[in-house]
Every structure is written in C-alpha cells, then in structure tokens.
C-alpha cells in the first residue's frame, strides 16, 4: 500500500495542482525591471500563449520559470515544485525549454545532438527516445546530417525534437516560429497541435497573434506587467462591443425604422459605404435572424449579414495602444 | 553528481574538437614548437659535446606542452558555447554547474595529456635512436623523466582551470584564449628557467612546486565553481 510519502503519491499530488502557477512574480536586473507582478495559473494539458511586444519580458519570464534566472519578487510553482534553488534540478527534469535560437551543436549530427541531451536528461532508453523524437518532427531520415548543413526550419525542428526527448510535463516554446517561412511555421504549428493532443502543457511565447489565436487555449498579454489574461474570445468580448455587419444592395430608405426596436439590437450606425451598417448587439444569434427578417420585410436586397470579427490582433493592439511604454518599444 | 551527464559533455566536446580544424591545428602546432627546436639541438650534438648537457634539463622543455595546449580548448569551453548560443539549451537540462565544469575540464585535460605524453614519447624515442649515445644518456636523466611524468597532469590541470575561469567571465573566445595563454606563462617561465639551469632543480624544489600545483588545482576548481554563475552566463548581467 502506498503511503503519503511515496513518490507516486507525491507525483499525483503535483498533477492535481496547476502545471504552472505564478504569484506576483517579478525579475529586475539592477534598476531595470524585466517584468513584475505577474500572476497566472496554467492547467495540465493547456496551451498557454504569452504575448507581448519586444522587450516585454516574455523570454525573461520563461527563463525565470525554467530556473535559469532567480526571481527577485513573488513566487511560483512549476510542475508542482516551488520555484527555489533547491528544486531547480527537479524542475528541470520535468520541463523542457526550446529557446528562440535553436542552439544546436552545428558540427555534430542531428542524432549526436539528441544523444548528448538524452544523456544530460539520463534517459534510460535513449536510442528509442531519440528515434521517437525524430519521428515526431518528421526527421527520421536526417539523423546523420550535420546540423550545420540544415536549413533554419529543419534546425528548429531538431530543437523541438530535443525538447521532446525527456517527455516533459511542461514545454516552454520561446518564439518557436520566429524567422520561419510560412510552410515551416505551419509544420511547427502542426507539431504543437500534436503535443496538445498528447496532453503536454505548453507555454508558448510569441508575437505572432494568429499563431496564438490558432494554438492557444488561453493567452496572456505582457508588457512588463500582465495586461490581461483569458481565452481569445473572452478577451474580444471584454474589449469590444459585439457587432453585426449588414450589407444591402442599396441604402435603406429608413434604417432607423428597420433596425430600431429589434430584439437583441442595442443600436446601429451607417458604416461609410452605401448599404453598409453596423449593429451593436447583445446576442448575435438572436439579433442576426431578427435583422434578416426586418430587412426582408422592408424589401431590402440583403448581400450579407455577419458577426463583425475582432481578432486577437485587435485585442492586442487595443491593449498595447493604451500603453505608452509599449508604443515606444514598438516604434 | 552524475557521471553520465559529465561524460555526455566530454563526448560532445571531443566530437566537436575532432571536427574543428582550428582546434586541431592549434593543438598540433604548439607541441611541435616545443619538441622540434630541442630535438634539432640535441641531434646536432656530437658525443664529445654531451658533457655540456649534464647541467641542462632538455626534457623539461616538454612541460610547456601540457601548460599551453589545454588553453585552446579550455578557453573556448564556456565563452564559445555562449557565443554560439548553445549554452542556454544545455543549462536548461538537469545538469548541475559542477557536472558541466568537470565535463568541460576533462574534455580539455584528457586530449592535452594524451598529446603531451605522445609527443614526449616520440621525442624520447627519436633521441634514443638518432642521438649520439652519450648525448642520449645525458638527456635521459631519470629525475627529468619522473618530473615530466608527474608534472604534466598537474600543470595541465592548472591551465585548464585558469582557462575555464577566464572563459566563464569572457564573452569573446579569442580574448579568453589570449588571456588564458598569458595566465599560463608563469609556469612556462619557471620550467624554462629550470631547463636552462638558472633555477637549480632539487628534490625540495620539485616537492614544493608539486605541492603548490596541487593546491592551485584544488583552489582553481573552487574558484571556477564560484565563478560559474548560471544567471550571469544566460542574461549577461553582472
């Protein structure tokens, strides 16, 4: 029978808590604040996006959570272990970090690179794991290639294979598609999708907003301090009034009469071009059919009715535009 | 302390040396400089001139090899990885600073010892075969042979720690190598002074130097461990 102190029970207890939790975490280098007062929790198996402009503190946050840098304030737990020097090795056993630059030994082959890291993680079935990691990134046939001869995209895949070797509980990906062409970036996205399906917790820093929107369950926007956190759709709803765009063949004779008093429609305005209107709505699923019926009843030729899309980029720009510090760094 | 992680670093380093021409040339040229000049001088001596060698210690010139050869790779060890961007991925693994440093030190020490002993062996063999009999006997003084055997690892170890210490504090490999060579000059100077009989070699001197080197090697290990600051190496902060 297992007692409370058994490693298995300890492992289960760790899995019950969040994969990562930060409470008021901060890091400063002398007078310069890298990030401060950052708090969040990330569940097991969640893909968490960490967004922010250059210099916002994203990479420093990853390095801090990865035990490479000591926090100067606050606390955190990573893979169930409090972030403290005495737990650094235990944490690093359970995580993997893929830095922005692949950092491969360019004079060694792909397999030699992975073998080295398999030994550093003391992986017992190293050969099998190296083969599995290469297969996961579709590089099984490139194992004998010297890393220096590989393209940037392939190097990034080798770095991802290296990060997968230890079968980490938490995987930190720091700008994994930075500098990649669209095809290579898409391949990395597919790999991340595959990891999500395997239940790996992923902490993804990026400033490619479409990447975060596509891959992440939740996102946080950082600019030295945390600006917001939530699901992309939640953030859109928080920041933007929900709207429906209506296009008709010609201008309506009396749009106020058509849209006024419709169920779930709070207001309307013309949107520049003739026959274009924007309706502020409380519930698009109620408002859109009601508007359609009203337009048809008014004899209008309806071209389209659709919920106005607000992308994560809109959210990001809205938040960052409010921030003079960010405006400077963006400039 | 994990021997597997230490050997992972050693194996990786040795594989990199083998494929890095500048390292191979650097490690090959220096021993030649220290071996060829005394070899030519010894081979040109006739039997009648052997008496002059009784007060010289030609073999001790060879101690310059273990003193200088490790600089090439040890100075590169940390600064080179920083420059290439390979340090951060390695330090995100469970490896401890001590394991990383021991791996780096062994990877610099072992090839240097091999080179030093092999070049010394070749030198001795050529002298035995090619030099005039009296000259060979004068060169092969048992105390010098013993000194070569014992001081080679002590000097190499000292150089390795000095060069790694400089490497942990330098962001440029070439600067680290130049400073490493400078730091290795005092032992080379003392060895040359003994070889030229300016400083008289005595058993007391040998024991004193040996003890000092052992202490410096231990001190060097502690110094380097203290200098190895993961945070500073990653962030570049001071």
Question: Treating each run of at least 4 consecutive H or I residues as one helix, how many helices of chain B?
Answer: 11
Shape of chain A: elongated
Compute the average pLDDT of chain A: 85
Roughly how many Å apart are the termini of chain A? 62 Å
Numbering strands along the chain, what is their spatial order in the largest sheet of chain A? 6-7-8-3-9-10
**How large is the radius of gyration of chain B?**
19 Å
* Low-confidence regions of chain A: 1-10, 326-331
Describe, in plain words, how this protein is organized in 3D.
The complex is a heterodimer of chains A (331) and B (238). With 331 residues, chain A is α/β, with parallel strands linked by helices. Chain A folds into two domains: 15-236, P-loop containing nucleotide triphosphate hydrolases (Rossmann fold); 241-307, Alpha-Beta Plaits, CATH 3.30.70.100. Chain A has 13 helices and 14 strands. Chain A has helices at 7-16, 58-65, 88-94, 110-120, 126-136, 152-164, 182-197, 209-215, 232-239, 255-259, 284-297, 312-321, 324-330; strands at 20-29, 32-42, 47-51, 73-78, 81-82, 95-98, 170-174, 201-206, 218-223, 225-230, 243-248, 265-270, 276-281, 302-307. In chain A, helix 4 (110-120) packs across helix 5 (126-136) and helix 9 (232-239) packs across helix 12 (312-321). Chain A starts with 6 loop residues before the first helix and ends with a helix. Chain B has 238 residues and is mainly alpha-helical. Chain B has one domain. Helix content of chain B is 79%, strand content 0%. Chain B has eleven helices and no strands. The chains are: A alpha/beta (331), B mainly alpha (238). Chains A and B meet through helix 3, strand 6 and helix 4 of A and helix 1, helix 5 and helix 11 of B.
């Amino acid at each position: 029978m297992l007692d409370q102190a058994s490693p298995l029970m300890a492992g289960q207890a760790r899995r019950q808590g969040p994969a990562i939790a930060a409470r008021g975490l901060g890091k400063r280098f002398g007078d310069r604040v890298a990030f401060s007062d950052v708090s969040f929790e990330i569940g097991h198996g969640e893909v968490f996006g960490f967004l922010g402009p250059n210099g916002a503190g994203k990479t420093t946050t990853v390095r801090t959570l990865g035990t490479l840098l000591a926090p100067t304030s606050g606390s955190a737990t990573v893979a169930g272990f409090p972030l403290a020097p005495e737990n650094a090795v235990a944490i690093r056993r359970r995580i993997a970090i893929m830095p922005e630059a692949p950092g491969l030994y360019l004079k060694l082959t792909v397999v030699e690179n992975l073998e080295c890291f398999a030994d550093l993680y003391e992986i017992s079935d190293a050969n099998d794991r190296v083969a599995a990691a290469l297969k996961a990134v579709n590089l099984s046939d490139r194992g004998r290639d010297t890393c220096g001869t590989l393209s940037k995209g392939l190097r990034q895949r080798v770095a991802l294979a290296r990060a997968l070797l230890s079968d980490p509980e938490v995987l930190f990906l720091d700008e994994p598609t930075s500098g990649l062409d669209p095809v290579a970036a898409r391949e990395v996205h597919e790999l991340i999708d595959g990891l999500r399906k395997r239940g790996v917790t992923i902490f993804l820093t990026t400033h490619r907003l479409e990447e975060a929107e596509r891959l992440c369950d939740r996102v946080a926007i950082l600019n030295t301090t945390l600006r917001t956190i939530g699901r992309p759709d939640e953030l859109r709803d928080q920041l933007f009034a929900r709207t429906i765009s209506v296009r008709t063949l010609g201008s309506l004779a009396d749009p106020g009469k058509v849209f006024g008093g419709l169920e779930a429609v709070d207001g309307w305005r013309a949107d520049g071009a003739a026959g274009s209107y924007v309706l502020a709505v409380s519930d698009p699923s109620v408002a859109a059919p009601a508007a359609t019926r009203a337009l048809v009843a008014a004899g209008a030729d309806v071209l389209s009715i659709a919920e106005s899309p607000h992308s994560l980029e809109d959210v990001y720009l809205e938040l960052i535009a409010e921030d003079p510090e960010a405006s400077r760094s963006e400039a | 302390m994990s021997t597997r992680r230490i050997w992972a670093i050693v194996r990786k380093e040795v594989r990199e040396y083998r494929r890095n021409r500048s390292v191979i040339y650097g490690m090959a040229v220096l021993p030649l400089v220290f071996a060829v000049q005394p070899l030519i001088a010894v081979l040109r001596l006739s039997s009648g001139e052997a008496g002059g060698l009784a007060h010289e210690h030609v073999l001790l010139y060879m101690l310059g090899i273990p003193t200088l050869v490790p600089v090439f790779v040890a100075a590169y060890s940390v600064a080179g990885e920083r420059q290439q961007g390979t340090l951060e991925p390695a330090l995100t693994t469970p490896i401890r600073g001590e394991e990383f440093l021991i791996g780096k030190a062994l990877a610099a020490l072992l090839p240097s010892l091999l080179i030093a002993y092999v070049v010394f062996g070749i030198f001795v063999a050529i002298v035995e075969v090619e030099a005039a009999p009296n000259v060979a006997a004068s060169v092969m003084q048992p105390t010098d042979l013993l000194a070569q055997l014992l001081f080679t690892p002590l000097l190499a170890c000292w150089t390795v720690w000095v060069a790694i210490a400089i490497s942990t504090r330098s962001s440029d490999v070439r600067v680290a190598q130049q400073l490493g060579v400078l730091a290795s000059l005092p032992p080379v100077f003392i060895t040359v002074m003994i070889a030229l009989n300016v400083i008289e070699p005595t058993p007391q001197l040998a024991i004193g130097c040996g003890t000092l080197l052992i202490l410096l090697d231990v001190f060097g290990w502690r110094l380097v461990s203290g200098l190895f600051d993961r945070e500073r190496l990653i962030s570049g902060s001071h």
